[in-house]
């Protein structure tokens, strides 16, 4: 963290981004970092490759997030000193054009499979979320954490700990969440926005998906699929699948759940969830992905049948080895 503090103190202009298809920790972290930099009198901008999902648009200053395009990235190439990449362990996963990046690259991430890249990396696999790390950064910088920053950071911790249910729910995470609540956050409002404000079309998509759930013969693996046709049939998009990967894991005796989500180019985004004793990040790494022990993901360039065959076989092998 000391190197990140030095970078902030020595530079004036910052571009912030995160991974494609950002979720609560990614968006909350970059918004909090943006507000922290502004409080320090720095010039900052957030540039993402995807729009903010509807359920996270309540976050303070989410309207400041700019959606990228190749022309915009190229035009910004000389306009900032540092590119901050948060909650992302791979430059290509930002979706930004690599040739358009000219500033120093600084990474802040908590994924166990994240490997150092760029000019400076601060990686803390023991952190519950990247938001927890941003909180510590703000404290070390002497920045007053106001309600807007607090809401963003609380959302990071809430979502990445699965509402304080996952093994990432440490005493430290709970302590920080409590300190953030003291800043005037209404916890029910955050929970309502994230978990209790779903569209009817999303519910219809979920019903369609769960009606076709599959399970292995031994009952230890369960999986669901969302295709482009299903989006069209329910008038939904990829952002409507937030948290879908968790549903199969709720089945009794299931150790690993798998979510196959078809991308527009025919590839499949695979999300893994584990109840604890299976390290799904090891499976994701086989296919060039990564993540955490209990939650990980990757992208596979294959049709659905081949993707299912390869992925399920890999999960079976991991389970047998435990």
Briefly characterize the structure.
With 322 residues, the chain is of the alpha/beta class. The chain has helices at 2-10, 24-39, 70-75, 130-141, 147-160, 171-181, 187-195, 200-210, 228-234, 280-286, 304-321, and strands at 13-17, 43-48, 65-67, 82-86, 104-109, 120-123, 214-215, 221-226, 256-262, 268-274, 290-291, 295-300.
Description of the molecule:
With 322 residues, the protein is of the alpha/beta class. It is built from 11 helices and 12 strands. It has helices at residues 2-10, 24-39, 70-75, 130-141, 147-160, 171-181, 187-195, 200-210, 228-234, 280-286, 304-321, and strands at 13-17, 43-48, 65-67, 82-86, 104-109, 120-123, 214-215, 221-226, 256-262, 268-274, 290-291, 295-300. The strands form 2 sheets. The protein has a 6-stranded parallel β-sheet. A 6-stranded mixed β-sheet has the order 7-8-9-10-12-11. A hairpin with a 5-residue loop joins β7 and β8. α2 (24-39) packs antiparallel against α5. It starts with a helix and ends with a helix. The relative contact order is 0.10.
């Amino acid at each position: 963290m000391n190197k990140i503090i030095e970078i902030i103190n020595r530079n004036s202009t910052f571009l912030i981004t995160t991974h494609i298809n950002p979720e609560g920790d990614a968006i909350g972290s970059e918004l909090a970092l943006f507000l922290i930099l502004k409080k320090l009198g720095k010039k900052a901008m957030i540039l993402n490759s995807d729009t903010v999902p509807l359920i996270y648009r309540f976050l303070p200053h989410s309207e400041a997030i700019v959606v990228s395009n190749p022309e915009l990235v190229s035009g910004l190439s000389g306009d900032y000193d540092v590119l901050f990449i948060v909650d992302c362990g791979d430059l290509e996963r930002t979706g930004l054009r690599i040739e358009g990046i000219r500033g120093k690259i600084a990474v802040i991430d908590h994924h166990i499979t994240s490997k150092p890249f760029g000019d400076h990396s601060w990686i803390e696999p023991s952190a519950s979320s990247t938001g927890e790390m941003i909180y510590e950064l703000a404290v070390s910088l002497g920045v007053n954490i106001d309600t807007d920053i607090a809401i963003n950071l609380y959302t990071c911790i809430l979502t990445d700990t699965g509402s304080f249910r996952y093994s990432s729910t440490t005493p430290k995470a709970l302590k920080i969440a409590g300190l953030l609540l003291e800043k005037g956050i209404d916890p029910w409002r955050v929970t309502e926005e994230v978990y209790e404000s779903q569209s009817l079309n999303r519910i219809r998509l979920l019903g369609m998906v769960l009606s076709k759930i599959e399970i292995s013969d031994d009952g230890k693996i369960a999986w669901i699929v969302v295709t482009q046709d299903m989006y069209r049939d329910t008038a939904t998009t990829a952002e409507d699948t937030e948290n879908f990967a968790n549903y199969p894991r709720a089945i009794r005796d299931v150790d690993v759940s798998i979510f196959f989500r078809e991308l527009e180019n025919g590839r499949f985004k695979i999300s893994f969830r584990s109840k604890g004793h299976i390290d799904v990040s090891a499976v994701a790494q086989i296919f060039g992905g990564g993540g955490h022990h209990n939650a990980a993901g990757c992208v596979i360039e294959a049709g659905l049948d081949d993707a299912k065959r390869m992925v399920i076989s890999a999960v079976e092998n991991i389970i047998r080895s435990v």
